[in-house]
Amino acid sequence: MHQSLVERMKEESMRMVSIDLFSGPGGLCTGFKWAGILPLIAVEWTDTTVETYSVTHNAEVFELNEYIVAGKKNKAYLDSFLEDNPKSVLIHGDINLVTNDMIVSLLKKRFGIACTNDDCVDVVSGGAPCESFSLAGTRTAGDERDDLFSNIVRISRAVNTKMILFENVKGMFSKAKDGQKGAIFNYICDTFEDEKAKPSYRLASRDQDTILLKACDYGVPQLRERLFLVSIRRDLENVNFTYPEKEYGPGRKYPYVTVKDAISDLPKVKMGVTDNKYKTNFTSKNDNQANFISIVRGERDDENFHGKAPKHLIEKGLYGPEMLSSHTAPGHIKRKQQLIALIKPEESMKEAYERLNKAGKMDDDTRKLFPNTIYASRNRRLHWKEPSFTVTSHCLDEMLHPTIDRAISPREAARLQSFPDWYQFAGPFVQFHGDKVQDRYEQIGDAIPPLLAYAIAKQLYSALH
What we know:
Layout: H1 3-11, E1 16-21, H2 27-34, E2 37-44, H3 47-57, E3 60-63, H4 64-67, E4 68-69, E5 72-73, H5 75-79, E6 89-92, H6 100-110, E7 123-126, H7 150-159, E8 163-169, H8 183-192, E9 201-203, H9 208-211, E10 212-214, E11 225-233, H10 259-263, H11 287-296, E12 301-302, E13 305-306, H12 311-315, H13 334-342, H14 349-358, H15 364-367, E14 380-381, H16 395-398, E15 399-400, H17 410-416, H18 440-446, H19 450-463
Helix pairs in contact: 2-19, 6-7
């Protein structure tokens, strides 16, 4: 490594380095940094998400559309990023156009990493877009997104990484390939373990119960499930990875972190109101909440958790002890306001409809407030004393505040994902779903929860030390 990178790692208490593919807004990056792993290169294609990542993590953006113009490569543009510089690089564009040579050149010339067996990045991570695998999606056979994960394998082999982390949704277990249910999972595993490829990797486990992790078991106030495949370079015979121990939940070291633990300290804003001033005199009600709040406020920083709020955000005036951002309660049209008012605490829209119907209170005017098709996942009150249900990219339409008649704010959604309050989400608050511009809710819902990423990153570090 170049001395400048060594100095940066020492200053930020980083002990390993990685590459962050399909980075999203940086949920995995955040958890990795908390564990002392510094992502040097990231790749993401969505404009607003790139802005979120680059501002929050102080990364220099490499614009692929400036490098590749009309099919020709602008060598001078690439060369400007190849000088010795410890600042991380975020490549903005289609990962299919990110060549192995580009990644290798950045590592060698900018960071001083040779990509040999003994001098390489420690981890390449990535969660390819999950829409084609998700049980809530169309799950079209032969969707071209099914093979986006191969870029993770391709780049991993090019840089000779020691370990690979692949993340995706539970639905990948059951998606068919060539007419065979569940075959896509085996296809992906086999691709990672191709012994003819150089270098070759072995999976720590294929067992579905082992690799499927529930976020609430690791301190995230949410019932989200995701699968994580970990691959190890075959020549590293003494390196073994153990999946993180479940520490939260009944009968374990700590109780689950609840919705109340996660968001009750935030300003109680009503519909359409913004309050970005944090009240520093808040007193936590229990140890679980105290620990969670110290993390999201950027106050916890010790030998095992490098969670201090980033210096560059403080210096730019973007974060401080009394500061919040993105805590704007959404506005609702009158019909939606009337509908939400009918939904009692701990109740969903579907349950409210059934209750009113059973009680004989479903007159014509009341029925018109409900949609023709009543989805069980839409307009559900969060429960104060439990972890939340899964925060998705549609969370604005799915999650209602436990007691206030409104949907949750982006900051509340971020808290449920375990994003710290210093996180600077960019772009519009609300955008038509499916638009290339991702709004803040969609960015948050698509991300890997940082505390879940942290639990895995600790184990990656342990495996290599």
